[in-house]
Amino acid sequence: MKQSEKWKRGLPYVGNKGQKAEKIIDILPAGSRLVDVFGGGGSISLTAASSDKWNEVVYNDRRKTVVNLLKALIKDKPHFDLMNYVYMDRETFYSWRDKMPDSIERTLVLTIWSFSNDLRSYLWGPKNEKDKLQLTRALFLGDTGTKLDGLYSYAKNENSISGKYRLFHKWR
User: Fold this and answer.
1) Alpha helices for the chain (secondary structure H)
2) How many other C-beta atoms are found inside a 10 Å radius of the C-beta of residue 132?
3) Are 140 and 86 in contact (CB under 8 A)?
4) 159 within domain boundaries
5) Structural domain ending residue among the three candidates 43, 62, 81
6) What is the pLDDT of residue 13?
7) Taking the CB of the first residue and of the last residue of the chain, which one, N or C, has fewer CB atoms within 10 A?
8) pLDDT digits (tens, 9 = 90+) for 33-52
9) How many structural domains is the chain composed of?
């Protein structure tokens, strides 16, 4: 998959077929409509919509806020600056989960920062949370006061989240 087409992978979601979506779409017969009954992160729907094999692609998921989040991200309305969501500690995650009203922004935060994207449990365990968060702060904010902050200078001209992580792996 080309770097410019990675958006087709959809939301990070358990069971995401993003890496296999093109192969799945290739073997499905063309027709007037494709119904993605268990849409999840949307990788099948997004890949199908860009393939021109169907006149209409219908995406469905049992969580209405996930459907609305995917629509918002596709239409860019409302616009989300995803860089605002690159750092979240455990306490903030649980505050979003327990105190924020249901919304597409809350769904975005809980999808990105939950373990197995279950929208309930924090992504990292207590043992490695500190190291992961410190690395994330160094990469995106450069304010850890450690040698890792050199990573920020190395990656500061990269504007995409995936590009910054690609530079991190090169820097490492």
Assistant:
1) 21-27, 43-49, 64-75, 90-99, 104-113, 126-140, 150-155, 161-171
2) 12
3) yes
4) yes
5) 62
6) 67
7) C
8) 999 998 888 888 888 888 88
9) 2
